[in-house]
């Protein structure tokens, strides 16, 4: 089939490339010329494991362009995958989605199914259909369908090629038949429902996972107070298949491009309809506090970080991505700078993006060793494999004061017990084998 995809971010580009892999002819459209030029030369503008390789092996079925009219005018199906960022009040900013809808309306020269992949508040598909139908230039039929994505960054290609489910929210037969054809070579289970239910499935799924994380983070906070161990607690809970062992990792809260904005957007939407989603409100509040938990912990050791050498391991919101959206590092590093800390930071792929916000205030390092050398305190924000596999004895060898505040529980307590360190992690006993005489 002839498919166009609007937006080449994590969602749009991965969708386009995976549809090409399953045999469709796909034109990816983006307003960003630099991105388009990169993709035309076979380079992925985002870091996503396996994406560039898959893109290169499907180049004969892939086209990249800024010329939306050419791409949309005779497409069988157009996917909308542009961003829906959060507005100041927590609601979703739909301006990009609506501007693509207008572009589609003015371009179409034949019947088409428009598929909304971006996460949009319940009812938005109806508005998109309205916008397109009232602004059509030519006399063509358009159906709008909701087809939310369930990909996680870092495993986006696998999550799309082998999706846990394909949800099709349709209001007419043409859209249903066309979308089943798009996905005929995929092996995932297909659920066909109406558009509003499909939109809700996406929000409810993301918000449930966010709730699960905030729940385990609260239990971890309580474990610290009463002397229980969250690793064992989570393992013990996870054996119950009704609970499941996934998404029970406590830490410094969820970040990324989805959970923070999707919890706020659903809460906002419920409020708008005079309903308070109390569980989601609690999820959001717990997460805000959790993000600054490491700074709070550091106050046990130093009143302020002024003049101290601070090592930061990990900048991205999770491993496997270069994305910094809603990353805890972005909340904590300004506080450290405000304190007057000398910061050295390491991240295997996130440094270039972080430099855009902080070009001069931080020393960026290529290795963990260089980062922790002479440090007074070390913060771990992201559980990169390099951090987890790091030879922990080097903390006591290289740091001036080996105080490690780990927001992702990268090490077992047993491994840290015999080192000359303070190891303060989430929901577990603090290891204090370091004898030290400085301020405490
Ligand atoms: C996505 C989804 O769109 C969002 O709804 C979902 O909840 C999370 O992820 P993502 O792919 O991460 O967003 O967005 P982003 O990386 O910001 O990419 C959006 C792309 O669309 C950018 O390349 C941007 O240049 C492009 N764009 C934006 C357009 O082509 N046209 C526009 O009008 C606006
Ligand atoms: C998420 C959903 O997983 C995906 O299905 C949806 O389509 C988009 O949003 P993503 O944001 O890429 O994907 O990453 P995910 O792996 O879900 O992690 C989100 C955040 O939760 C990260 O900050 C991560 O560190 C945190 N997290 C995850 C925890 O704190 N604990 C966990 O147990 C799992």
CATH architecture of the largest domain: 3-Layer(aba) Sandwich
* Helix and strand composition category: alpha/beta
Give the bound compounds.
uridine-5'-diphosphate-xylopyranose
Largest sheet: 7 strands, mixed
Rg over alpha carbons: 24 Å
If you had to describe this structure to a student in words, what would you say it looks like?
With 440 residues, the chain is an alpha/beta fold. The protein has three domains: 2-193, 3-Layer(aba) Sandwich (Rossmann fold), CATH 3.40.50.720; 202-290, Orthogonal Bundle (N-(1-d-carboxylethyl)-l-norvaline Dehydrogenase, domain 2); 293-432, NAD(P)-binding Rossmann-like Domain (Rossmann fold). The protein is built from 19 helices and 15 strands. The chain has helices at residues 10-21, 33-40, 51-57, 68-72, 95-107, 124-135, 156-161, 173-182, 195-226, 230-238, 259-272, 278-291, 293-298, 328-339, 351-357, 368-372, 385-388, 393-398, 413-417; strands at residues 2-6, 25-29, 62-65, 77-80, 112-116, 142-146, 166-169, 190-193, 309-313, 342-346, 362-364, 377-380, 403-406, 422-424, 431-432. It has a seven-stranded mixed β-sheet with strand order 11-10-9-12-13-14-15. The protein has a six-stranded parallel β-sheet with strand order 3-2-1-4-5-6, sandwiched between helices. The protein is elongated and about 80 Å long. The mean pLDDT is 96. It binds uridine-5'-diphosphate-xylopyranose (UDX) (2 copies). One uridine-5'-diphosphate-xylopyranose (UDX) is lined by residues 149-153, 206, 209, 213, 247-249, 251, 254-256, 258-259, 317-318.
